């Protein structure tokens, strides 16, 4: 398994961050970090298996993890083209790309102690490169508007993301089924910014 090591500096300390493709061995750590960041019920053993498999196409994996000293500090789950459902929260008429050439950036998560040092951006770059090899021409994502200081939308915009449309109550149904939003708890009314990155 190929690992890419990059150096980041946090408050005068240097840290080696190791990036590699995600594997089933990472699932427990991914679920734990996702629960800490996004709330209880966001990812469970069934969903992580399903989401991971959607990132595989033509023997290429579009999902990646980042570790520091054997501890997971970030991950990116990406669905390959034609492996995900275009639902009511998507506006394909505005994408300007054939829908079968669009991947889906499902989830980007970074430990709060390692935010602001480019880990999320590096994970996205790795996923974009893999998605391009899978045949994607663009990627869609739904970014959490209520993230602290709107950091999710800001980071995605800096990486080339363009706003397509805002979707209020994007995760409300999920919250009724057991997802506990960090802000709204079991009745989520947060807004998702549908954004696209064209490759």
Automatic annotation (TrEMBL):
Organism encoding this protein: Thalassotalea piscium
GO molecular function: acyltransferase activity, transferring groups other than amino-acyl groups
UniProt entry keywords in alphabetical sequence: Transferase
Domain N-acetyltransferase: 17-199
Protein name (record): GNAT superfamily N-acetyltransferase
